[in-house]
Design goal:
Layout (H helix, E strand, L loop, with lengths): L7 H9 L8 H15 L5 E5 L5 H9 L4 E6 L2 H10 L7 E5 L6 H4 L10 E7 L7 H14 E12 L7 H15 L9 H11 L6 H11 L1 E9 L2 E8 L1
Parallel strand pairs: 1-2, 1-4, 2-3, 4-5
Antiparallel strand pairs: 5-7, 6-7
The chain binds S-adenosylmethionine.
S-adenosylmethionine binds next to helix 3.
Amino acid sequence: MVDDWRDPALAQRWTGDPAMFNPLRAETLDVLLTAIEAVFEPGKTLLDMGSGSGLVEASLFERVQHAQVVGVDRSEPMMALAKENLKPFPFQFIQVQHDLQDAAALAGPNSPLPRLTYQIAFSVQALHHLSREGHLAVYQALASILEPGGWFFNLDRMAVPPQMFDVYRPLWARLERTHGFGPDEGGDYAAHQAMLARAGDTPLAVTDHLALLAEAGFTPTILHAYANRALIAAKKN
Ligand SMILES: C[S@@+](CC[C@H](N)C(=O)[O-])C[C@H]1O[C@@H](n2cnc3c(N)ncnc32)[C@H](O)[C@@H]1O
């Protein structure tokens, strides 16, 4: 069955152990927050696409005090957990319930987003459920929402090129040595594809992200990558 973030049991389980299938989560979140800290201008607003249970915000508010985030998500149970997790920061987080499959509406005249100056947008482990067209629509919406020179950071799983699967497998196994556990990405490419299908994941190749971001009006680069996890930074042209 495809993972459904609107299932309260999945929301609870994942929020209780977000690194369950991703031993690199803590390290890559630290890289993301370091990058955000470097460019954030106090008084401006951040936008989180797929804010879930607010775990990224909880870390962000510890490091970038007084930052304000508008978080978009469609899952009621994840949003309820965010409300709980972010109780210590009552004035810094605004939630907007919206389906990212209709990203264009976020930039349209009836946008549900509060009218604020969005300097930075980010997304963590959320966009890989979207199609290629869906990713482009998100990037185009962000290009319209962000202020000139604004930033977008996307930390997510990437597609594994089929002919290169054998070079990824030992890198996942290596994580068991370095972190004590590794992700279950499947023993061969067919098993990997089946795992993605079960989870409803449709990740894009990192080269596709770069091309779509450029098409939408950003200058993109890769800030951090390990096997099929990457942090992409993009600056609005
Ligand atoms: C793995 S969780 C990550 C949450 C958060 N970014 C974090 O890293 O802690 C993925 C989140 O993306 C949200 N999401 C996935 N597809 C979505 C869509 N089409 N529209 C809105 N939210 C979506 C889910 O509801 C879920 O809260």
